[in-house]
Amino acid sequence: MSNRIGRYSGYIKPLFCLVDLLILNFTIIFFEINIKHKLLFSIYISALWIILSIKNKFYDVKRFSRVIQILASLIRQFLIFALVLYAFIGFFKQPLISRLELAKYFIALIGLITFTKFVLIYLLSKYRKIFGGNIRKVVVIGDNKNTHQLIKIFNDKPEFGYRFQRKFGVKGEDFDLDNCFYYIVENEIDEVYCSIAELSNEQLRSIVNFTENNLKVLKFIPDNKDIFTKKLIFNYYEYIPVLSFREIPLDDSINKFTKRAFDILLSLFVLICILSWLTPLIGLLIQIESKGPIFFKQLRNGLDYREFYCYKYRSMKPSTSANQATRGDARVTKVGKFIRRTSIDELPQFINVLKGDMSVVGPRPHMVKHNEEFAQKVDKFMVRHFVKPGITGLAQISGFRGEIETKKDIVNRVKYDIFYVESWSLLLDIKIVVLTALNAIKGEEKAY
């Protein structure tokens, strides 16, 4: 049996926590909060900060964690800590405490702890990259597209702290698990990554037993073929383990309320501050070039596949054809080319958002006939309809907007949509809205 040696990762989380506790307790001296029992206050905020951190997994930052995930954890932590902070006044009967100074203290904490957290994460990544510290030596068992991409990440991202040692091709005639195990032990490998698609059940059992008996971390690479869910959810019903195929954040009532509030506020802003004056102007230009209605509506499928009318500014000449616009489409007017290029034609969909048919961000709704076609051809296409469709989405800012020219276009769009459905957060919505606005200003190739 081999033991893990030279590991300092166990000290990283306590170090991060200690730094935050020092900030919590020393920052207070710069504010005239008028706390009568300072020691009690210090113990109170320190203890509850630690409890909240454990509950929210605040310090559970992985090597590969994205910035948006870290920001989300910061928001969760401080939203609850704000309630904890002001609860001290009533719980310990401290009426003389200055609420304004306490608010200033809280804002200072947000800035200092956020800044410090990102600085420490940055320094840790540089420590891994430049000095080769906090390293995990890894091997990969399997030889396919997924393992190649993973190995490329290991080699291209030294700041993650993974040192790729060797790949074992399962399908080769010379592959032998015993030789693989010998290499792992002799080279003090820390983590083993296995491609599930290439291993038999018997081989998987052998690898699991070996890694557990030799204190190695074992991770699996799923066979995602075209599209695969982000993760399985493991729960217990009494003593019976049960796996759920996916968990949708927007099924949670708090998340649903948060997203709806964001939709309503942004929709009201756009309708009052932009569409109130833009609609008469766009309507006049549309009428001058071609007679017909200002708005265009079309049946689309939304949440739970329910049909609704999606609104747009009319960008084409009145026609009986309901086909999607293609590159160089003769039906598109001059005004239509401009409003489609800048995505102005989509703005009336904020009416759909206010009505509740759509959300500001979500999978883009397709025409009914296209939905029926794609549902037959694209695996997991219907997963998109677990949430409300959006005016913009993750797929659109990732280069998959507009006309579906090849099957690859719709397959990639669905991949991004499923990732969004399973990974929703308010910060992700804000990021998508900002990037959509920037893309609209500079114009996009497929906006025609």
Automatic annotation (TrEMBL):
Spans through the membrane: 12-33, 39-58, 70-92, 104-124, 264-286
Domain of life of the organism encoding this protein: Bacteria
UniProt subcellular location: Membrane
Keyword vocabulary terms for this entry: Membrane, Transferase, Transmembrane, Transmembrane helix
Statement: the UniProt record of this protein carries the keyword Transferase: yes
Record membrane topology: Multi-pass membrane protein
Main location: membrane
Domain Bacterial sugar transferase: 259-441
Keyword Transferase included in the entry's annotation: yes
GO cellular component: membrane
Record Pfam families: Bac_transf, CoA_binding_3
Family in the record: Belongs to the bacterial sugar transferase family.
Protein name: Undecaprenyl-phosphate glucose phosphotransferase
Source organism: Aquimarina aggregata
